[in-house]
Predict the 3D structure of the following.
Amino acid sequence: MGVAIKLIVFLPLLAAIIAGLGNRALGNIPAKVITTGALFISCALSWPIFLSFLGGDAQATVVPVLDWVRSGDLNFNWALRVDTLTAVMLVVVTTVSALVHLYSWGYMDEDPDQPRFFAYLSLFTFAMLMLVTADNLVQMFFGWEGVGLASYLLIGFWFKKPSANAAAIKAFVVNRVGDLGFMLGIFGTFLVFGTVSIPEILEAAPSMAGSTIGFLGMRLDTMTILCLLLFIGAMGKSAQLGLHTWLPDAMEGPTPVSALIHAATMVTAGVFMVCRLSPMFETSETALAVVTFVGAATALFAATVGLVQTDIKRVIAYSTCSQLGYMFFAAGVGAYGAAMFHLFTHAFFKALLFLGAGSVIHAMHHEQDMRYYGGLKKEIPLTFWAMLAGTLAITGVGIIHIGAIPALGFAGFFSKDAIIEAAYASGTEMGGIAFFVGVTAALLTSFYSWRLMFLTFWGKPRWIESEHIQHSVHKTPETAEDSTGGYHPHESPLTMLIPLGVLAMGAIFAGFVFHHAFIDAEQGAAFWNGSIAFDAHLMHAIHEVPYWVKLSSTVAMLIGLGTAFYMYMRGEGRPQALAEQFRGLYQFFLNKWYFDELYDLIFVKPAFWFGRLFWKRGDQQTIDRFGPDGAATLVSYGSRVAGKLQTGYLYSYALVMLLGLVAAITWVMVR
Amino acid sequence: MNELGFPILSLMLAIPTIAAIVCLFLSANSARWMALIATLANLALGIVLWLNYDIGGAQWQFTENAPIFGRFSWALGIDGIALMLIMLSVFLMPICIGASWEAIQKRVGEYMAAFLFMETLMIGVFAAQDIFLFYIFFEAGLIPMYLIIGIWGGADRIYASYKFFLYTLLGSVLMLIAMLWMTNQAGTTDIPTLMNYDFAPEAQTWLWLAFFASFAVKMPMWPVHTWLPDAHVQAPTAGSVILAGVLLKLGGYGFIRFSLPMFPEASAQFVWLIFGLSMVAVVYTSLVALVQHDMKKLIAYSSVAHMAIVTVGLFAFNKQGLEGAMIVMLSHGLVSGALFLCVGVIYDRLHTREIDRYGGLSINMPKYALLFLLFTMASIGLPGTSGFVGEFLSLLGIYKVSSWVALVCTTGIILGAGYMLYLYRRVAYGDLVHEDVKAMSDLSGREMALLAPIAAVVLWMGVYPESFLAPMRQDITTLEARIARAQPQGDAQITMGVPKKEEKGEHGSHEASEGGH
């Protein structure tokens, strides 16, 4: 396994370096072949590792690479850890990445900067693989920041667009806020445990339960504060409520990037981290309650915003945010297996939805506004079927296990239901809230997902309203003969359709095929094999929940579907009428709960204001004025006074001498 | 004599001195070559020095001692800390000469002489083992820098050079008095001996403050930092490189060589002052950097923020803090030097440092954009670059002492990302709107040769810092042992609660006691 894992991780790096440094000198085709080839090799090497863990005949190993830092009792190395959790992430990352590389052949075909794009993609994959194979917290942080860099570069890939640049910086800086927590978490962990090695920390964690530590002048439960600090990092990377604002803006990047980084892999790093450190989180009920709460709040918040967005990518972005919330509250209630399972299935169907959206955008001449879509079902049928598979998966369509008939359904059905049931079965107060929120969010998920489908693929074409289409056909709504404007959407090339097909298979079958291994009480324990704090009791308990609980998410899904159908397929103007009726709420959702405005007001503007204040008032008008400039003024003033004294007249010198003499004599006499 | 059989340190001082004198009499072009050859020769000697440095051997190596008069002697010798800083100096020096190759057209001979003289003084500071020899090198370093800014600087060079001189001289007078008192008291001018001499705690307070006055200005610490932005803005590119790369390290070196080992109790007594000023510096100067319009000013302010991480690391009184501070110094020397070079590259083409005059350089200068990005990321402290290793270790070190200080200083990673990416966006991203910017050509071979080696070392230090940590390890250990008696108490104070499980971890209780000392 040693050689294989090194190849898996370092081939993408090598490819990135070659394509990146070669850039245009290398040419498009070689750059694409090298990067995509490297990824397919990585992918081909990853699946056997995953399957051997699935078969139960592989052991967790750590492959050392190089020393990194030794400083006193702090010691950490570059090393690649492979266990079940890593193996799951390996297949997710390399598979989606390889498919996205391939997809980008078609999607980025007309871009002049292709080698750079593919180099960034491969660089991202390398960083992500370093993250998931980390054996110590610092290497995890390396991967964490590495994916952040790649994300920054890819969001800002079209760097001529000011909006893309702003989004890139925002993504990086907001993530850094999370990283502040992560770093302090690492420091604290090292202080408490004397190591940053993950296995050693997890082993020692239970013994620290109940201890207290001084932090910022307070006395807090040690494990709670450590877990929460680390969780702040996870919140940043996984765009949880409060630190989520960068994710929707990140949609400025090319769509394949959104699929790979901002849906399937990078944003799930936070969930991965919590699962990786799950034995640590298990030692603090408070921390778990916070994780549950934040996850549930995000699931609900993002779903509400997703309801009203009109940009197809933003709808999917908020959907991602919401699904990540599910994963977190699954982890919060102790169902780490379910969280990872949802991460796994979500990677397939969300990447599928994004790539499908990319295919739609490609067909619609870069138009992203769903209000100008409509009736595309017949025009781009293959994309339609792929998107349909993705929608059925995310909304969780399936039939629960009744009697002898096993449960059947799309990928999301298995993972999302497991999460909702686990929240109920956990029996905690926070779990109850999470259950309720999960079901509500499932309704909303179903609504916005079907809204997207109905607006895009059904109904009449509304294309000519779009400026992009107007540019393409050189007509305006007035001059066009019908609402299509004579525009003909074209199905995407094969390089884009193949990834859609493969991911569609994943979206359809991933849940059914793998649910035993991931979440079954007995098989799950054997599969995870201690790489996460797998709770077999909880996984048993989810089978014991009442029928109404099991059915609740399906019912919610059907209500969402029905409402969307009623609103967008039956009769005109119903959504508008509803928006008018609940104007305040509609605006609140449409403006994303005003988070951006709020942050701008309390962080961004004051930062610049204070910067100017410190610079002008502080440095120039205070320090310099009373410091060096003041000294200079004093000296020149003094010299002018001294100069005036030197009048050159004998009588004035005589006077001064006389006065001096008098003073001296007086002083001597008085003394 | 030493391990090599010839006085290598004296030779490293002699080569640039002689070359400097020769340069004064040479034509412009010969002076350039002379300077380049001399600095490269010194770099080669530096590599010999590093390769022959016996890690884990004697604390002071390559020692030389020739009495001059009285107690004053030509005493040289280095430990691992000095070695690394000498390496930094000799590495940056040929790059500075290369950076001035075309940019400096007037009085080239004198210019090169000033730089070579500067190199002598820098190496001298780090190699001196006699406290007065140190003082001479330390203060004399002002002179060539003063000339470089004052003669070859920008429009406001007189104000800047005067400000620079006034600030830095002010502190050093106090330091000299303190040194005189110390040598009188201890009866020696030998730095290694003084490092183990225990001054009375009351005396330490005053001595510490006297040294602090000098080092704080050199560092520079808030609020005596205002000379730095002006000096950087007015200095020619190579002047900025050496200023940021080596001169700013003198303060840190002073703290680690004098303040900490000679006055441990006073250092502990004044940690609040260091921490307070550093915390202010991180937040204050980072915010100021955010609103700058002048590239060099922005990087200058960022330097102040980075140097604050050095001071908190040094006064954390533990290995991670000390080693981290050293790595930050080395890393900052490379990274900010490289960033100033990057500014110089485009300044040479457009003759403005106004950030808004640029934009879209990624389009016509892709190589430049890539290297600039690398150094930007290293400045932000991205893992895998040198910046991360230093920042991480220092902040970890300080966390052991105070979570408050760690929290405030760690906000530097957010603010740093803010101002650096904002700079990068305005310079490299966006569209090419200005015609003259559109006409700018990508890096020349010469410029590539200046930046690529720094990039390589930045990555090396980020991926395998062991090469740089290993020579310093023993010295840091010695220092930590020396100052351990004054170590301030950490604020973590882990107390084992009522354990929920019966077994009380062996490890945990051990850590708890350690957290309490």
